[in-house]
Design brief:
single chain, alpha+beta
C-alpha cells in the first residue's frame, strides 16, 4: 500500500507553523530577529489587548474618567460609562467620540470586573487595550502565572522571563496593533487586582532585569512540568535555538502530572491527523518513529488502511488536544504490582548542592541582585491555568470531588478566586483520588478484606521528596525508544506519559523545587536557558 508521506509533508509544515503560532506565539518574528536593548522609547510601555470588538464595553473608575478622542479633544465620562461602536466612533448614549480614543483616570480603571493601572486605548476596530508601564504589567502577570505564595526566588524567575517576553513582543507591535493578550496565548495578566505584597517584592527586586542572549532579548518559553527533562526547541517547533536545548531536571519532585494516561479512539487519532493534513484511513498502529536522547517522542508514525504517515509528535499533541495528550514525554507505565509509577530521577541529584551541580556562573550571567536567603515558605505546585471552560461532565466531577473533601480549604478558596484554575484543580483532584485509591502493598487483596489506601496527595511535601530509587532491571527505564508502539487496549490507543506542556525552556515545577532548595533566580535561569545572561534593560 502506498505510503502517504509526500501527501502529508506540506500540510504538516503548515499545521506545524499554525499550532506553533497559536500555542505560544513565542517565535513570532523572533528566532533570527535580534531586538537590541537600547530602544526604551518604543518598548517601555506594554499594550495588552483586553477585548476584541465586543458589542459593548463598560468601563468605570473611582475617579472621573477622561476620554481623549482622535482629534485630541478631552471629554468627561464621569465615573462609569458604557461605550458601543457606531461606525468609526464610540457612542455613550447620544454622544459620539471619534476613534481611536484614550481613556484615563486619576484612580484605577475597571473593566470586566478587574482593576487596571495605566490607561485604556480604544482602537478604530473597537479593540480595548490596556497601555501601562512594563513593571506594572509584570506585577499583574507574576501572581497570575506563578501564584502568590511561592518561594521568592521562583517568583523572581517568573518576573524576569515575563518582563522579557512582554518587551520582546513590544518590538513587533506593528504586526498586531498590540503587544500581548491577557490570556495563555501569551501570558495570563489579571491587572492590578491580582497584585500581592510578595509578588510585588519579586518584581521590585528584579526591576528592569531581562534574560538576554548575545545582547538581545532572549526567547524564554516556559511550561508546567517537563516530566524529568526539557525539550529542544527544534524538536517541538521549527528553529534550533542554542539556549533552548533539552536539559535534565536538577532537583527531584513529583507533580500532579508525574504520570498520566490518555485514551484515544482510532476515530480521535484519525481526526487529529486530518487536522494536520494527513489521512491514513482507519488507524491500526502507532509507534514512536524518533525519540530524543532523554526519551521524549520527536516523531510518531501512523499506519492505517490507506497508508502510513510520520508526523511531529508535538504537532500531533496539539491536534489531539494539549490538555488530553499532556506532553510528548511518552512511555510512562501503568502502575505495576499495585504501586504508583515513580518519576525516574537519578538517585544522586538531590545529594548535591546547587554549587556542586552547576559550574561557576560567570559575572555576566549572574542576577544583579545580591543573593538572598531563600524563602522558608513551603514550596507549592503551580496550579495550571486554562481559559477553556469545563464541560458539564467535568463540572459534575469537580463538584463531586469538592463534596468528597478532595481539596483543602486553601485550595477551595484559590479555586473560587481564580476560575481559570478549575481545570488544573480537576486534574489535581484526579491525581489525588488515584493516589488515595492505590493499594500500599503488592500482595493480592483477599475477598472482603479491607483495602489499605494511601493518604491524599500532599503537594508541598512532594516537592521535598527524595529522588526516586533506581528501577529494577525488569521495570520501565523511563525512556521512550524509537520503534516503541503505543499499546491498544479494547480497541483504544493508550498513551502514557509524564509532565505537562510543550517541554521547552523552564519547567515551573522544576524551578519551584530548585528555589525551595536554595537556588537563586540567576542560577535557575542559567540551568533552563544555558548560555543566557540576566541584564538590566536600559
Amino acid at each position: 500500500m502506498r505510503p502517504c508521506h509526500y501527501r502529508c509533508n506540506n500540510a504538516q509544515k503548515a499545521f506545524s507553523l499554525f499550532s506553533f503560532g497559536i500555542g505560544m506565539l513565542f517565535l513570532f518574528g523572533t528566532a533570527f530577529f535580534s531586538p537590541l536593548l537600547v530602544r526604551p522609547a518604543e518598548a517601555r510601555d506594554i499594550y495588552v489587548r483586553l477585548a476584541a470588538s465586543p458589542p459593548k464595553i463598560a468601563l468605570s473608575s473611582d475617579g472621573t474618567m477622561t476620554l481623549t478622542d482622535s482629534a485630541g479633544k478631552k471629554h468627561s465620562l464621569k465615573k462609569s460609562a458604557a461605550l458601543t461602536r457606531s461606525g468609526a466612533s464610540a457612542a455613550v448614549g447620544k454622544k459620539r467620540y471619534s476613534l481611536p480614543a484614550r481613556i484615563s483616570s486619576p484612580g484605577l480603571l475597571r473593566y470586566n470586573g478587574r482593576k487596571y493601572r495605566g490607561t485604556f486605548l480604544l482602537t478604530r476596530s473597537f479593540v480595548l487595550i490596556n497601555v501601562l508601564d512594563v513593571e506594572d504589567y509584570v506585577r499583574g502577570v507574576v501572581p497570575a502565572e506563578a501564584g502568590s505564595d511561592r518561594p521568592k526566588e521562583y517568583l523572581k524567575v517568573q518576573a524576569i522571563i515575563s518582563r522579557t517576553y512582554g518587551l520582546r513582543q513590544s518590538l513587533t507591535r506593528a504586526s498586531r496593533g498590540f503587544d500581548v493578550t491577557d490570556t495563555t496565548s501569551d501570558q495570563v495578566y489579571k491587572g492590578a487586582g491580582a497584585e500581592t505584597p510578595l509578588t510585588d517584592q519579586a518584581v521590585r527586586e528584579t526591576a528592569g532585569e531581562v534574560l538576554t542572549h548575545e545582547n538581545a532579548l532572549a526567547l524564554a518559553p516556559f511550561h508546567s512540568d517537563s516530566g524529568g527533562h526539557t525539550a529542544a526547541s527544534s524538536h517541538v517547533w521549527t528553529e534550533d535555538i542554542p539556549y533552548l536545548r533539552g536539559v535534565r531536571e536538577a532537583v527531584a519532585y513529583r507533580s500532579p502530572n508525574a504520570n498520566w494516561t490518555a485514551r484515544l479512539t482510532a476515530a480521535q487519532v484519525q481526526a487529529a491527523l486530518k487536522k494536520m493534513g494527513c489521512d491514513v484511513g482507519q488507524v491500526r498502529t502507532i509507534r514512536v518513529a524518533k525519540a530524543d536522547s532523554a526519551g521524549r517522542a520527536v516523531a510518531l508514525a501512523f499506519t492505517g488502511s490507506r497508508g502510513t504517515a510520520s508526523v511531529k509528535a508535538s504537532g500531533f499533541r496539539i491536534a489531539a488536544g494539549p490538555n488530553l495528550l499532556k506532553s510528548t514525554m511518552l512511555g510512562a507505565p501503568s502502575a505495576p504490582s499495585g504501586k504508583p509509577a515513580q518519576t525516574p530521577f537519578p538517585t544522586d541529584i538531590t545529594a548535591k548542592t546547587p554549587t556542586d551541580i552547576l559550574p561557576k556562573t560567570p559575572p555576566a550571567a549572574r542576577n544583579r541582585t545580591p543573593d538572598r536567603t531563600p524563602s522558608k515558605t513551603p514550596a507549592k505546585a503551580p496550579v495550571p491555568v486554562s481559559d477553556t471552560p469545563l464541560s458539564k461532565i467535568e463540572e459534575t466531577l469537580l463538584t463531586q470531588m469538592i463534596t468528597d473533601g478532595v481539596f483543602s480549604p486553601e485550595e477551595l478558596v484559590d479555586m473560587l478566586k481564580n476560575l481559570n484554575k478549575k481545570r488544573g484543580y480537576l486534574y489535581i483532584g484526579r491525581q489525588k483520588k488515584a493516589e488515595a485509591q492505590a493499594p500500599v502493598t503488592q500482595a493480592p487483596v483477599k475477598a472482603q478484606a479491607p483495602v489499605k489506601t494511601r493518604a491524599p496527595l500532599n503537594i508541598s511535601a512532594l516537592l521535598k521528596m527524595p529522588a526516586a530509587p533506581a528501577p529494577a532491571e525488569s521495570a520501565w527505564t523511563g525512556r521512550t525508544s524509537s520503534g516503541q508502539e503505543i499499546p491498544v487496549e479494547n480497541g483504544v490507543f493508550v498513551f502514557r506519559g509524564r509532565g505537562w506542556g510543550h517541554g521547552v525552556g523552564l519547567s515551573q515545577w522544576g524551578a519551584m523545587a530548585m528555589a525551595g532548595q536554595g537556588w537563586t533566580a540567576g542560577r535557575i535561569l542559567e540551568h533552563y536557558y544555558p548560555g543566557t545572561a540576566v541584564k538590566r534593560f536600559q
